[in-house]
Specification:
8 strands; five-stranded parallel sheet; Rossmann fold; binds 2'-deoxycytidine-5'-monophosphate; 12 helices; three-stranded antiparallel sheet
């Protein structure tokens, strides 16, 4: 049944604009939204807060299986792990780095599959990540791979972190981004690559609105018609 629910997958490297565009699309379509990176980040938080070594695949997999993860949609999205709101801890460079390391473990990825697939509910799902179109929802009817030049991605990340009042250094961001790209692309299990049937969009020179329009144009006209201001479900 759930495999008849339409899914729009948006994969790509860090800083390509997936998060902003995916949220906007979910809102326009009135569909559910999956931020799969937040699941890996929540796991990173859970592993670190329990003092488990990040290279212990078995222990990390156990936490991935046991942790109670909830997304609460209200004013923005909040991520709760084991009854605690951890949202404010997730979007640091450090958490992204650890998430990317844990994401190389095949058993961890498998342990998180069912959780991600459970987001597929009517009327539809916008799924943001690295392997949404290749592994998690290979039968999704609409697939996008959103890319941008490394310089532009680093610039966006820099501005984003700065706007959050963080003390950031562009050179360090470029280094972090390169390292994370390499790890996400070169891992054996579910590496970051475009699905064969994905439409590749380079957002380097495009505004959020332009990217959103290009993606909406891939959907049948009646689906893409603005449905009013609907919060992502
Ligand atoms: O999208 P993000 O920056 O929040 O993701 C953090 C890390 O999680 C990313 O560097 C790799 C991992 N990740 C993944 O392996 N697969 C996904 N579908 C989403 C994220």
């Amino acid at each position: 049944m759930s495999d008849r629910v339409p899914v729009l997958t948006i994969d790509g490297p860090s800083g390509a604009g997936k998060g902003t565009v995916s949220r906007l699309l979910a809102k326009r379509l009135g569909w559910h939204f999956l931020d799969s990176g937040a699941i890996y980040r929540a796991l990173a938080w859970a592993v670190q807060s329990r003092g488990v070594p990040v290279d212990d695949e078995e222990a990390v997999t156990r936490i991935a299986t046991e942790m109670v993860l909830e997304f609460k949609f209200g004013n923005g999205v909040q991520v709760w792990v084991d009854g605690k709101d951890v949202t404010d801890h997730l979007y640091t460079e450090e958490c992204g780095r650890v998430a990317s390391r844990l994401a190389t473990f095949p058993k961890v990825r498998r342990a998180l599959l069912a959780k991600q697939r459970s987001f597929r509910r009517p009327p539809g799902l916008v799924a943001d990540g690295r392997d949404m179109g290749t592994v998690v929802f290979p039968d999704a009817p609409y697939k996008v791979y959103l890319d941008a030049s490394p310089e532009e991605r680093a610039r966006r990340r820099f501005l984003q972190l700065k706007s959050q009042g963080l003390d950031v250094n562009l050179d360090q961001i470029i280094k972090d981004l390169e390292q994370r790209d390499r790890r996400d692309r070169e891992r054996k299990e579910a590496p970051l690559i475009p699905a064969e049937d994905a439409v590749i969009i380079d957002s380097s020179e495009l505004s959020v609105e332009e990217v959103t329009k290009k993606i909406l144009a891939l959907l049948p006209g009646d689906m893409a018609a603005p449905s009013g201001a609907v919060e992502p479900r």
